[in-house]
Amino acid sequence: MKNYKVQLMALFFPFLALSGSATTTKSILSIDKVGAASLTEQIDPIEGVPFNMPQFKRPVFPQLTVNIINKGATEIEPITTIINQAITEVSKQGGGAVIIPKGKWKSGRIILKSNVNLHLAEGAELEFPGTAEEYLPPVFTRHEGIEVMGPGSFIYADGEDNIAITGKGVIYGPPMNAEIRQRPNGNTVVENDITFNMPIEQRITDGMNGRTFYRPKTIAPINCTNVFIEGIRMERSTFWNVCPIYCENVIIRGITVNSIDVPSGDGIDIESCKNVLIEYCTLNCGDDCFTLKAGRAEDGLRVGKATENVVIRYSLAKEGHGGITCGSETAGGIKNIYLHDCVFDGTQVGIRFKTRRSRGGGVNDILYERIRMTNVGEAFKWDLLGSAKYVGKLAERYPPRPINKLTPIIKNIHIRDFIVESAEQVLNINAIPEVPCSNVLIENGQINSKRLIGAINDVDGFTIRDVDITCSEDNQINILDSRNILFEDVNFMVPTGKVITNIKGEASKNIIYRQKEEKIECKNKQSIKVDLLSQM
Q: CA gyration radius for the chain?
């Protein structure tokens, strides 16, 4: 039987054909073993990856070191000109480090150059300004998956190689009452603000003369190679924190983000990048924590760059919308993602997939394993339709729409070896009727939740296997227009001692509950006898 299961997994999940799991939940790391506080000096080899991935090494920079104090920097005046001149000079001399020493510093946009390590010493506090004028001229960037000329980011680079931001210092956005925080972050949704056939140089979003304004990210290099970010802490962002765009060979390790009170205050957003390692990070965010994106709608399809070959390990997501999120910008495709040995503690959702009918591309070939979740809202969530606020009537499930180039495909997702210590609900899947979410496997885990399964809607090929599920308040599994659903060796424990399957929709079929030698083909209002949860 074991060999049969392996063959079946290889059939439906070919990207995992060479991987296997002998892990038990005993090997799942606790919260004190992950995150920035557990950062190691060395970068350990990458192992167990079900796709081709290079090994990463700490970058090497020339010995040249420039302290901005020696260039005339003082805490009294902004250091923008001094630090950018120092970076340019060091880069022209072949590279080295530019040091921001202990102290409270203020700067406008910093532009990194090739072979330069911007090092924030312990005790260094670097604050960025709060008016739109201080982010002129506009630079080439992306805003929520659309290319624009805008504020960019506090620390920016375009087309550079071998750049780094390191140290134990802190980067601050402007005060919470700053002028740029009072501005709307765009007029409507970005694809309505910016028409996809508009030339890039005309997409000016600097907020001047009545133009749209998009808030700056904290760190957002674009078109760069060999990017290294380590050790720093980020506070009080105005938008997303760390967002490499069109970059290759990226290492992000040991950083801390605190942006709980910031709308759209994502922690790390990997946007259309290749070969990325994220490890030992701690994120407390006003939106999603670890996030993978690949462009939006027609503009994202025009660019056509995937996010691919990403490893996330030994990291901690605390408060935030999603612990790990794919989307909702999916146009270029999100694929070959491997997350392991992470803890999600207090996020609204643990594992989250999101897109919209109009986003294009999709998500495929995902492996998550050895995960601990505590005090999460929903352990697993697929939100593929969105809300009318952003996509209008496209958020309505019916009628099915014609499949076109903007229809996203979500498939081949494998989640295994996990503990959900406490959750409000186990699972919700709201997929797209015309392109059902397919080939999802969740196996080898333990779940403690108040409520069971709120929705499995528009899914074709979904298996939960070898999972112990204890629900304290609910015994309902709700299924709509879904087929080829298998609950295999799932041990339910609910207050009534019975699980009820509420199955609706003409497309619903082949919904199986299999426990050892017992096999039940589930119907609407099916009552399945399971373990009784004792009421203490």
A: 24
The structure tokens listed for 390 are 């952003």
Mean pLDDT of the 474-489 span: 98
At 68, is the secondary structure helix, strand, or coil?
A: helix
User: Do 423 and 376 contact (CB within 8 A), yes or no?
Assistant: yes
> What separation in angstroms does the CA of 427 have from each of 412, 452, 455?
17, 7, 7
Q: Count H helices and E strands in the chain, helices first.
A: 6, 38
Residues in a beta bridge with 235: 172, 258
pLDDT of residue 48: 94
Q: Which residues contact 184 (CB under 8 A, 6 or more apart)?
A: 213
pLDDT of residue 17: 44
- Cα separation, 407 vs 471, in Å, equals 35
DSSP character at residue 114: T
The encoded tokens of residue 192 equal: 């309505």
Q: Which residues contact 40 (CB under 8 A, 6 or more apart)?
A: 280
Beta bridge partners of 419: 372, 446
Q: For the chain, give the number of residues.
A: 536
Q: Whole-model pTM above 0.90?
A: yes
- The per-residue pLDDT for range 406-455, each reduced to its tens digit, is 999 999 999 999 999 999 999 999 999 999 999 999 999 999 999 999 99
- Choose between 5 and 500: higher pLDDT: 500
d(CA 285, CA 276): 21
* DSSP code at position 16: G
Task: Report cis status (omega within 30 of 0) of the bond before 221.
Answer: no
CA distance 96 to 115: 6
CB 360 within 8 A of CB 330: yes
Rounded mean pLDDT of 475-489? 98
Q: Kindly report the average pLDDT of the chain as a whole number.
A: 94
Longest dimension (CA), the chain: 78
